[in-house]
Recover the amino acids of this structure.
């Protein structure tokens, strides 16, 4: 093990009196890829930050050694650390939208590290930057050096970040949830690129992730953490196929598996029907000219029957969220028709729209943003019962309490949202959506922001409530795993159009459109789980 | 909870001023407007704690009635500024579009004026009076409130819980009142507290210039103005009202700081 690039021995990190990381040990050989897997609060990010000596304020290392080669990083001077960051250790952060400085061109930011750590001339540095940008797949690299970060998409920014880090050929690359903010396809592209670059340059890779699905594909070994402690460590494939610790088993069990297909329902008049729905946003014009409107949804048709669960899948920018909002009359409809129970609701407003509003509900993605932080949970869930008027306040509260009980949150009605976990908040959002017994619920990425095990629970809850209450559900998601678990029917959107539609098994097993095939190929599904599918 | 020095000192200073004003409503040591030329410019003594002014009036009594004027004028002004500012800020921030543009342009024009200059102009037109000050300063400070409210509303209205409220079928007015307005309470409270201090300063400045409450009624501003020629012979004449104004300003600012810390939701977990 003397050849190890990185050796962490009995590392402990504490926040005040509480240990966030407790006795973590691992070693990383040159060129090896190790995944640190865990849910929020497991200490995986704190460990990564301790390695690069960038612990956030309030956290400090209280025990253990971190050896980069033969050098103990904990004992290194600030000056020495600055020399090591870059050529020794490179780091890619989670949030591509904020990890590049918006005030500087990407060229300047990529070049920064070279100027600091090498003796290359300006022209040589520029050539190196262009070559690296081309390597990470930015077309027209020479001209794009002068562009600013906001001119690139999230996936492109993460590539640029990767380029700036890999340009210094670090011995160790730390990637902290590098693709959590990206959609499935982009995630696969960025991670494939990262793996390839690390291999080319012989960098060891420390991948921090909450997604066990990524482990099989991108890591040689995996280390599972829970509450700051190591739960299990081993070769990635073996860990997934034969997990030995209970917690790992729970994580593996939380990976999406296809549920049994429900018998086809008898044809019925659709509950909601969109025909050639068109949604546009005003374009961003130049100074005097007004730009043509941007078409977010370009003529999408869809019908959902009562009690049916339909999944709407697509990458970011596919228009799926906008379409969902238009279906609820929350986004302006520029063309096409929307019928609810046979009656047109496309242009209704005010009180004429109220019956539609009463029958349709929404669960948003972000459990932190969708609940009013200044209201108590009980009042949040009781609020929908204000309409239609007639129910006395005491009964509203009683029904809200019963609904909270039903989503497994009995007795917490007094709390404010900030005192709840992400999963609990999403249950509150579900309770609020269902308390009025809607006929249709649109769930927009309702479980994307949750940890795997919590996601599993919330999905199960939703599926269970759906079976008992029989509402129709449009599940908008970029995550094919979610589709497998609960959908009857799948629709795939790409660039504002519907590109594929069909029964779940047909779409997942025999995709017809190229985009669907690409999505399926990019889905981080551990191959060894495949035989379990369909049981 | 840790005792906040800001809260304690600010609260004590403002509390002192309010207590002085409240006391003046029921009792003052002497009649604040009765002149006695035989006893003019006396130093502090057992009978006249803070001495007498150039007309032989008791400085302490005048200081106390001046507190009543300053506090009522400042409170009324803050209320006017808040009502105006809230209306403009809510309308602009929530409705957006041309309403926001028109209100925003008006607001920026007012903001570009120094508040005291605007008040001076208005008072010159309306003539000096107590309610003239309230109106003029209220108008001068409303744009600051409007800007804070508009900013808060702009960020809150994009949050998903506002859209969730719409999806529930709630009317726009209900959504605004139930889900948006409560979020402006914290920043507006903080602002109102500091405004109170600024307004007392501006009100004193206007009175100093003779554009406020007409004599012989006492205000800290006109007390300072008339004390100016006697600064060396009777320093207490300027020190006393000056100290009261300073106490108000410091107290309001410290209290505002403390409130900002307390009302910050990130702190209240």
């Amino acid at each position: 093990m003397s050849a190890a690039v990185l050796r962490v021995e009995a590392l402990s990190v504490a926040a005040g009196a509480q240990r966030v990381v407790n006795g973590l040990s691992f070693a990383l050989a040159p060129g090896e890829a190790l995944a640190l897997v865990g849910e929020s609060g497991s200490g995986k990010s704190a460990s990564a930050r301790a390695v690069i000596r960038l612990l956030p304020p309030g956290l400090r290392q209280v025990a253990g050694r971190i050896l980069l080669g033969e050098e103990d990083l904990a004992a290194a001077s600030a000056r020495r650390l600055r020399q090591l960051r870059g050529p020794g250790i490179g780091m890619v952060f989670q949030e591509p939208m904020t990890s590049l400085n918006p005030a500087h061109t990407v060229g300047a930011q990529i070049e920064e590290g070279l100027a600091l750590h090498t003796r290359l001339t300006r022209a040589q540095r520029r050539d190196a930057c262009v070559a690296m940008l081309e390597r990470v797949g930015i077309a027209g690299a020479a001209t794009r050096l002068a562009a600013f970060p906001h001119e690139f998409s999230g996936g492109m920014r993460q590539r640029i970040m990767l380029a700036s880090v890999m340009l210094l050929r670090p011995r160790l690359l730390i990637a902290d949830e590098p693709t959590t903010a990206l959609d499935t396809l982009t995630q696969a592209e960025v991670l494939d690129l990262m793996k390839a670059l690390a291999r080319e340059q012989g960098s060891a890779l420390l991948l921090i992730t909450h997604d066990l699905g990524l482990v099989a594909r991108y890591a040689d070994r995996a280390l599972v953490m829970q509450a700051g402690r190591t739960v299990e460590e081993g070769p990635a494939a073996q860990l997934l196929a034969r997990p030995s610790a209970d917690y790992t088993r729970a994580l593996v069990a939380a990976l999406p598996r296809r549920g049994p297909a429900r018998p086809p329902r008898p044809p019925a008049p659709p509950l909601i029907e969109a025909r050639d729905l068109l949604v546009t946003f005003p374009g961003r014009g130049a100074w005097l000219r007004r730009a043509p409107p941007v078409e977010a949804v370009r003529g999408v048709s869809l019908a959902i029957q009562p009690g049916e669960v339909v999944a709407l899948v697509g990458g970011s920018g596919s228009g799926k969220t906008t379409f969902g909002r238009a279906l609820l009359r929350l986004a302006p409809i520029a063309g096409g028709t929307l019928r609810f129970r046979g009656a047109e609701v496309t242009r209704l407003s005010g009180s004429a729209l109220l019956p539609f509003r009463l029958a349709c509900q929404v669960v948003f993605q972000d459990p932190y943003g969708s609940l009013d932080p200044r209201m108590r949970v009980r009042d949040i869930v009781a609020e929908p019962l204000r309409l239609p008027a007639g129910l006395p306040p005491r009964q509203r509260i009683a029904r809200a309490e019963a609904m909270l009980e039903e989503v497994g949150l009995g007795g917490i009605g007094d709390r404010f949202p900030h005192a709840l976990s992400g999963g609990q908040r999403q249950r509150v959002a579900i309770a609020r959506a269902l308390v009025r017994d809607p006929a249709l619920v649109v769930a927009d990425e309702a479980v994307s922001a949750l940890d795997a095990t919590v996601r599993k629970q919330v999905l199960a809850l939703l599926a269970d409530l759906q079976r008992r209450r029989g509402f129709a559900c449009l599940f908008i998601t970029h995550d094919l795993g979610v589709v497998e678990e609960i959908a009857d029917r799948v629709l795939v959107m790409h660039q504002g159009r519907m590109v594929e539609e069909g029964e779940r098994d047909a779409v997942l097993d025999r995709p017809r459109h190229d985009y669907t095939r690409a999505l399926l190929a990019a889905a981080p599904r551990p191959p060894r789980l495949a035989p379990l599918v369909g049981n | 909870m840790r005792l906040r020095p800001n809260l304690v000192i600010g609260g004590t200073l403002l509390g002192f001023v309010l207590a002085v004003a409240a006391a003046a409503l029921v009792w003052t040591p002497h009649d604040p407007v009765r002149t006695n030329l035989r006893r003019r410019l006396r130093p502090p003594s057992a009978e006249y704690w803070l001495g007498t002014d150039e007309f032989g009036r008791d400085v302490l009594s005048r200081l106390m009635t001046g507190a009543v004027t300053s506090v009522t004028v400042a409170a009324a002004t803050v209320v006017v500024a808040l009502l105006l500012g809230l209306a403009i800020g809510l309308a602009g921030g929530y409705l957006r579009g041309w309403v926001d543009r028109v209100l925003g342009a008006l607001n920026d024009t007012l903001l570009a004026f120094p508040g005291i200059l605007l008040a001076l102009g208005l008072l010159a037109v309306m003539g000096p009076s107590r309610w003239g000050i309230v109106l003029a300063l209220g108008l001068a400070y409303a744009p600051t409130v409007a800007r804070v409210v508009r900013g808060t509303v702009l960020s809150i209205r994009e949050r998903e819980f506002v859209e969730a409220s719409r999806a529930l079928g709630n009317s726009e007015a209900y959504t605004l009142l139930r889900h948006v307005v409560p979020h402006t309470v914290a920043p507006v409270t903080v602002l109102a507290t500091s405004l109170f201090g600024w307004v007392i300063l501006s009100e004193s400045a206007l009175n100093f210039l003779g554009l406020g409450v007409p004599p012989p009624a006492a205000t800290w501003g006109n007390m300072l103005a008339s004390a100016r020629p006697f600064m060396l012979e009777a320093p207490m004449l300027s020190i006393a009202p000056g100290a009261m104004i300073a106490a108000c300003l410091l107290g309001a600012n410290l209290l505002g700081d403390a409130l900002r810390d307390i009302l910050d939701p990130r702190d209240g977990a």
Notes: DSSP finds nine helices and no strands in chain B. The interface with chain A takes residues 159-161, 163-170, 178-179, 182-183, 265, 268-269 of chain B (CB under 8 Å).
